[in-house]
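Protocol step 6 of 9: fold each sequence in the batch and record its structure tokens directly after the sequence line. For illustration, a two-sequence batch is reproduced in full.

Sequence one:
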Amino acid sequence: MSKVCSICGKGKQSGNLVSHSNRKTPVLFEANLQKVKVKQENGTMKSQYVCTRCLKKLKQAD
């Protein structure tokens, strides 16, 4: 299973680290994903990766 949010689809993002001398080093930024148990429609529990932004929205909805 890839590290992608199961709700919004957020995943890895590429960019550059820029030093003081303006040298660029390619780097991958990973989304802040947490493994959470989510209740399915049929009543079973399934663990999924959810980003913290979606997790915050889900907690506010409850």
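Sequence two, same batch, same settings:
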Amino acid sequence: MKSNRNSILVFIVLLSFFVISFLTNILGALNPAVSLSFNLSETMAGFLPFSFFIAYGVMSIPAGFLVEKLGEKKMMMFAFVLAFSGSFLFATLPSFSVFLLSLFTIGAGMAILQVVINPLLRVSGGEENYAFFSVMAQLIFGLASFVSPWVYSYLVVGLANGEESFVIRLMANLVPPSMTWVSMYWVFLVLAIIMLVIISFIKFPSVELKQDEKVGSLSSYLGLFKNKVVLFYFFGIFAYVGAEQGISYWMSKFLQIYHNVDPAVQGAYSVANFWGLMTIGGLFGLVLLKLIDSKKVLIAFTFLTIISLGLAMVSAKEVSLIAFQSCGFFLSVMYPIIISLALNSFLKNHGSFAGILMTAIIGGAIIQLLIGMFSDLFSLKLGMLIVFLCLGYILCIGIWAKPLVSNKTIRLKELLRRNNN
């Protein structure tokens, strides 16, 4: 049966993906400036992503229950109210304690959005177009991660140089001269307001959740948590997000400490390129997964990430810059492969299982805090060795995973025969 496409709502959902990524993946570019402004130890700097990503652990499962009860529009409005509140709170009261509260509030809003928008995209775009729009959403997500560090660099450099553009002059009146990076939170505030206004005027369709999208009962969650396979994949997502954020969040700080890279310019550009290459890698991965079994792809890309990260940490400046950015390309296939291997390992309870996997995003919180603590005890270089442990666990998934259904691949002979025909 062909679904009716709601093009306006598809646009809103894709725009929401952009905003989520824009707000989420800027922390790595901000890390050096925030640490300097608040005179933070590495452990305290680790509390920044901890405050943001712990919200996913707190909100992912409750958000699923609330969406089914209150509906998608109300929950999206609530999510952007949280994003606005967190941004406004910190933009007007820029202190470290307020910043931690702000990050948790914004993170909670982003966690709610993640729960809402995937089923909404399926309904608004039509089931027959869902695969296409899902890929487009990931591209837009990557684009926003690429753009946000450039916006940050434009604002900080413009404020430092006293540029006369309208935006820079406006920001100069809003942010403390010694904390120009706070200007990004005024940008977040504006984005949240725009989304709230747009959503308020849009009529949402009735979303009938598929079985694998329903959150399930509390008892189903408790039962799944006793399953060793569930825990195996829970820690897989935990390790992936820990590794992804462990590289993207600390790379600018690493480049500043060990190679004297300006975090507001070259450091920010490196973070942007990390996410840009992750987007390109995702496209490449789509093709590769049609040709090679996903477990083999996961093993190969994990090995390449380990090699690239190792080079980034021991090489000279030029090689380190390229190697850090290249990690984004190699990380790109890991999240979707781990998710697919996990869901393909069960015949039922996909909704509850997916909720548990989303909760595992707290790996982005815990791992960064551990890196910060080890960095204070020893050095950032030694602290980032924790990322290798995460990658090692992901490697084990590629080796030990036994899904009930494997990804369908096209054999080379079959591909050549199709081309000849």
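Proceed to step 7 once all outputs are recorded. Observation for sequence two: The chain is about 80% helix and 0% strand.
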